[in-house]
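Propose amino acids for all 171 sites.
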């Protein structure tokens, strides 16, 4: 919460999501790494041991992935609440964010209970790693999009006629 608050005050909401997603990815990569390297593997083959058997590496990977996941919730909430206007859209965006977060938890539960073979849960971990990188890419392009929208809004406001603004440019 403290890191999200500090990054929010500095206007780095998108960067906080990228940092949190990279923490998740680091944790998942640590869990999936092997002493033989990546090599050629089939993630759907449950007989192939892809992860580390070193308990210190496994614990470290858990620290990174849980820290990143815990960091993502407040970061996305802060980013959505500050980039959507007016109040009805903002409330809808925040509610949608919570819905998507809960759907993610349900998908993760299915990934690690039914779809991925225990005890390594390789397929589920790979899916979460891909989602982590998708969050990095999506956040990066959203940052670029929002910067472009802010530049458009600044140009219109320099002209001094606020009524000429497009309705979707926000506050």
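Proposal:
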């Amino acid at each position: 919460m403290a890191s999200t608050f500090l990054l929010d005050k500095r206007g780095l909401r998108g960067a906080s999501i990228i940092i949190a997603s990279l923490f998740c990815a680091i944790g998942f990569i640590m869990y999936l790494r092997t002493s033989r390297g990546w090599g050629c593997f089939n993630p759907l083959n449950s007989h192939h041991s892809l992860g580390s058997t070193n308990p210190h590496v496994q614990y470290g990977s858990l620290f990174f992935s849980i820290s990143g996941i815990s960091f993502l919730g407040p970061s996305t909430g802060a980013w959505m609440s500050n980039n959507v206007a007016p109040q009805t859209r903002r409330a809808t965006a925040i509610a949608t964010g919570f819905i998507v977060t809960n759907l993610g938890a349900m998908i993760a539960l299915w990934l690690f209970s039914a779809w991925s073979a225990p005890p390594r849960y390789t397929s589920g971990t790979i899916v979460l790693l891909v989602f982590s990188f998708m969050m990095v890419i999506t956040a990066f392009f959203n940052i670029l999009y929002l910067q472009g929208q802010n530049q458009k809004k600044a140009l219109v406001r320099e002209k001094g006629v606020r009524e000429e603004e497009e309705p979707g440019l926000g506050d």
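The chain is about 75% helix and 0% strand. The first helix runs from residue 2 to 9.
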